[in-house]
């Protein structure tokens, strides 16, 4: 069994030592079906880091998966909170009349869409 000094618990949760990358970020890619090499490349990890992280996830699957699900719930609550906080602001912005330079751009876009629909 490997020594899991690569995986440490920080204020962000289970993380790759010396990085800001959490195991929950890795799980996002794992659940999306990404192979280990692509996850490694995407997150700029070493072979040892990705191997240790995936080994840790496999060894502690129920614990890591429970924490991951909690992270997803927390993120959804935060997203919902900020949507509610910004709902009125976004509605007010949407109700503003377009600026003159935007009107010209919108007219150009409408003409391009009409041309595409005719083809």
Structure commentary:
Strand 1 (7-10) and strand 2 form a beta hairpin. This protein has 119 residues and is mainly alpha-helical. Helix 2 (36-42) packs across helix 3 (47-59). The termini are far apart. Strands 1-2 form a two-stranded antiparallel sheet. The chain has helices at 23-31, 36-42, 47-59, 61-95, 100-118; strands spanning 7-10, 13-16. The protein has one domain (7-118): Arc Repressor Mutant, subunit A, CATH 1.10.10.10. It is built from five helices and two strands. This is DUF433 domain-containing protein. Pfam families: DUF433.
Distance between the termini: 64 Å
Content-based structural category: mainly alpha
CATH architecture tag:
Orthogonal Bundle
Low-confidence stretches: none
Strand content: 5-15%
In one word, what is the shape?
elongated
The residue fraction in helices comes out at: 55-70%
Rg calculated over all Cα atoms? 23 Å
Number of domains: 1
What is the name of the CATH topology?
Arc Repressor Mutant, subunit A
What's the order of the H and E elements? Answer: EEHHHHH
């Amino acid at each position: 069994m490997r020594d899991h000094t690569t995986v440490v618990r920080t204020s962000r949760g289970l993380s790759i030592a010396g990085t800001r990358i959490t195991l929950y970020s890795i799980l996002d890619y794992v659940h999306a079906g990404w192979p280990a090499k692509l996850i490694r490349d995407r997150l700029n990890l070493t072979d040892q880091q990705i191997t240790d992280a995936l080994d840790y996830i496999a060894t502690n699957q129920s614990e890591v998966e429970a924490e991951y699900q909690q992270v997803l719930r927390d993120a959804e609550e935060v997203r919902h909170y900020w949507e509610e906080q910004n709902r009125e602001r976004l509605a007010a912005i949407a109700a503003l009349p377009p600026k003159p330079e935007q009107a010209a751009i919108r007219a150009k876009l409408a003409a391009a869409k009409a041309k595409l629909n005719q083809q």
